[in-house]
Design goal:
Structural class: alpha+beta
Distance between the termini: 10 Å
Strand order of the largest sheet: 2-3-1-4
CATH class: Alpha Beta
Order of helices and strands: EHEHEHE
Shape: globular
Strand content: 25-35%
Number of domains: 1
Radius of gyration: 15 Å
Number of helices: 3
Largest sheet: 4 strands, antiparallel
Number of strands: 4
CATH architecture: 2-Layer Sandwich
Amino acid sequence: MKYIDGFAAAVPAANKQQYLDHARFANPIFKEHGALSVAECWGDDVPEGKLTSFPMAVQRKPDEVVVFSWIAWPSRAARDAGMKKFMEDPRVKDMKMPFDGARMIYGGFEVIYNE
């Protein structure tokens, strides 16, 4: 793994199955466009912070769960090309996210150490 896209979002607890269905639909398409692997994680032990925390970062509401996911790519160039292809893929044109995408936080990270 040389490059990781990381994501955190707040998903209504009632939408857990919709979120899983969304991931099962989208993640194979990421892999078709060059992703090495994709992980989707449902919050289980995500404490509130006093200064910073995942719940604060995504403005989690009482009925929501923090999710954390990542996509591993061979390189930043592969990520850039793969994301472009994903966004242009007609299968995802009308894809609806089962959460408020405006509160999702994300970023790309160069892997500097991995065992």
